[in-house]
Design brief:
7 strands; 7-stranded mixed beta sheet; single chain; binds 5-O-phosphono-beta-D-ribofuranosylamine; alpha/beta; 39% helix; 22% strand
Length: 187
């Protein structure tokens, strides 16, 4: 049995999509959904899907006990819209066992502050002709871990940051679970 813990700070649509993808797979279990935001919509999704969830403070996030807890609960940590920088205690404990999805073609539009609609607004403002997703291993720097997978989509002048976000979300829902499954096979 391979265990996955998912971190999310916001809506959690990717977390739900990942759960749905694996729910019939007897070899994989989503053990926890974890969030740093008490108001995160992902909590409602976890409750509806009957997935254990845990709200944690920054102090807990940086504690040794949290690392020990995660070592018991996860073979792979998946960041799906998680906005905090990962402490070295965790990146070291989960080297090549923690992945993140970024809603752009890194290294473009990455780094601190580049998340969610900020990314799509920058892509539109710069008249980009394409954007996409990047799935990468996580290290101690924002969006700088080794890239595992990228997929792109076209951007046209009529696009708004909302329509770009929709195109990117479709790529995420299609590819993230499949890439997670491939990463799990190598753990
Ligand atoms: C996604 O666009 C993902 O690429 C980024 O944060 C967003 C999370 O969306 N890291 P959701 O919370 O899964 O709906």
């Amino acid at each position: 049995m391979k265990k996955i813990a998912i971190f999310a700070s916001g809506s959690g649509s990717n977390a739900e999509n990942i759960y749905e993808y694996f729910k019939t797979n007897k070899e994989v279990k989503i053990t926890y959904i974890l969030t740093n935001r008490k108001d995160a919509k992902v909590i409602e999704r976890a409750q509806r899907l009957d997935i254990p969830f845990k709200y944690f403070t920054k102090e807990e996030f940086n504690s040794v006990e949290f690392v020990d807890f995660l070592k018991e609960q996860a073979d792979l940590i998946v960041l799906a819209g998680f906005l905090l920088k990962i402490p070295e205690s965790l990146t070291k404990a989960f080297e090549n066992k923690m992945v993140n999805i970024h809603p752009a073609l890194l290294p473009k539009y990455g780094g601190k502050g580049m998340y969610g609609d900020h990314v799509h607004k920058a892509v539109v403002a710069n008249n980009e002709t394409e954007t996409g997703i990047t799935i990468h291993y996580v290290n101690e720097n924002y969006d700088e871990g080794a890239i595992i997978f990228q997929a792109s989509t076209g951007v046209v002048p009529e696009d708004t940051y909302d329509t770009v976000a929709d195109k990117v979300h479709q790529l995420e829902y299609k590819h993230f679970p499949e890439v997670i499954e491939q990463v799990l096979d190598n753990i």
